[in-house]
Amino acid sequence: MASLFDSITHSAMSRRRFIQASAAAAASLSLAGCGNSLTTASADKMTAQEGKWITAACWHNCGGRCLNKAYVVDGVVVRQKTDDTHPDSPDYFQQRACLRGRAQRNQVFGADRLKYPMKRKHWEPGGGDKSLRGRDEWVRISWDEALDLVAAELKKAKETYGNRSLFACGTEVGRLLNLYGGHITRWGTTSYGAWKFTPGKIGYSFNAGEETINDRIDLRGCETIILLGSNPAWSSAGSPSYHFLQMKQAGAKFIGIDPFYNDTYALLEADWIPTRPQTDVALLTSVAYTLITEDDPSTNPLIDWDFLKRCTIGFDGDSMPEGADPKENFKDYVLGTYDGVPKTPEWAAEICGVEPNTIRSLARQFTKTKKVAFLAGWASARNQNVDGLPQMIMTIGAMTGHIGKPGHCTGVSCHAGAGNGGDALVSPGKDGLPGVKNPLDDVFNDAHIWRSIVDGKYVYMGPGGQDPGVERDVDIHVIYHAGRALLQTTDGMNLGIEAHRKVDFVVTHAQFLTTTAKYSDIVLPINTEWERVGGFLTGNREMAIMYSQVTESLYEAKSDQWIVTELAKRLGFKPEELYPFDEKQQFFNKIAGSKVVTPDGKDFEPLVTITAADIAQWGVQGTPQQGRITLPELQEKGIYQVERYPGDNYGYIACADFVTDPENNPLPSESGKFEIYCRSLAEVINGTGFSKIKPIPTHIPAPDGYESTFKDWGNKVKGDYPYQVLNPHYLRRSHTVFDNVQWLRETWPNPVFINTKDAESKGIMDGDTVLLTSRHGKTLRRACLTERFMPGVIGLPHGAWVDIDEKTGIDTAGADNILCGSVPTGQGVSGWNTCAVNMEKYAGAPLIPDIEKPQRIFF
Ligand SMILES: Nc1nc2c(c(=O)[nH]1)N[C@H]1C(S)=C(S)[C@@H](COP(=O)(O)OP(=O)(O)OC[C@H]3O[C@@H](n4cnc5c(=O)[nH]c(N)nc54)[C@H](O)[C@@H]3O)O[C@H]1N2
Ligand SMILES: Nc1nc2c(c(=O)[nH]1)N[C@H]1C(S)=C(S)[C@@H](COP(=O)(O)OP(=O)(O)OC[C@H]3O[C@@H](n4cnc5c(=O)[nH]c(N)nc54)[C@H](O)[C@@H]3O)O[C@H]1N2
Ligand code: SF4
Ligand SMILES: [Mo]
Question: Is the Cβ atom of 702 under 6 angstroms away from ligand 3?
Answer without folding.
Answer: no
